[in-house]
Write a structure and sequence with these properties.
The chain has 2 helices and 8 strands. By secondary structure, the chain is of the alpha+beta class. It is 31% helix and 38% strand. The chain folds into 2 domains: 69 residues; 127 residues, Quinohemoprotein amine dehydrogenase alpha subunit, domain 2 (Lipocalin, Beta Barrel). The chain has an 8-stranded antiparallel β-barrel.
Length: 219
């Protein structure tokens, strides 16, 4: 056969030339094969995630926070029953033992409602000799509505003999300005054995005592 031998220097030089030209191309293709998918995945995952994250930070938290602030503002705007009150207790529906006509003032005096849920009452129409101070607890039951449960200790007219505990309950509503209360009360007088001696009920009205409050008669 004619021509150059299979491994002639001329053929080897041609093959080396082809390889030198092919290597950069193959290297570029290989680099593109490796880098492009990850770069695309990075763009596809990173940017939408970044946008979603930005939308979440700029949207939801601010909207939710605004709602919480509005709720807090509404609670702050609602008046509180905490403070000192001048009260009048009027018989209504007290029939039996004792039998008291409607409209008769059962008691009048002052009470204090404390922020820790405790309460105390000073009776103006009961003599200290027979017991005229009561202590109790209160809870908020709704918008400007409250329930109170407190106890006093009663003695006979001599002030020497203990009769027993008197349980007094109130259900009150505070007006929108926080300056007046109205509601119902019950008084249950027990002896030391737990026997009910008297049940009195009626309505109660109160006005807030402030730094501007002046003279008012007790009854």
């Amino acid at each position: 056969m004619g021509g150059e031998p299979a491994n002639s220097p001329a053929q080897e030089e041609v093959m080396k030339s082809l390889v030198r030209k092919a290597v950069p191309v193959l290297s570029a293709l290989a680099l593109a094969t490796v880098v492009v998918p990850y770069a695309h995945a990075g763009c596809g995952q990173y940017f939408p995630a970044s946008l979603n994250s930005a939308q979440h930070q700029m949207g939801s938290p601010y909207l939710l926070r605004s709602a919480f602030e509005d709720d807090n503002d509404s609670h702050k705007a609602e008046p509180s029953i905490v403070g000192t009150w001048k009260e009048h207790w009027i018989s209504e529906g007290t029939h039996g033992v004792p039998d008291i006509p409607d409209g008769v003032e059962i008691d009048a005096g002052y009470s204090q409602w404390h922020s820790d849920g405790t309460e105390e009452n000073l009776s103006g129409l009961r003599s200290p000799l027979i017991g005229n101070v009561c202590f109790g607890e209160w809870i908020k039951t709704g918008a400007r509505t409250y329930r109170m449960n407190h106890f006093g200790v009663s003695y006979d007219p001599t002030g020497q003999n203990l009769i027993g505990p008197a349980r007094i309950q109130q259900w009150l509503t505070l007006d929108e300005k926080g300056m007046a209360t109205s509601g119902k009360f019950t008084i249950d007088q027990y002896d030391e054995s737990g026997n009910l001696l008297a049940h009195i009920q009626g309505k109660i009205i109160g006005t807030r005592v402030t730094m501007n409050t002046g003279f008012e008669p007790v009854a």
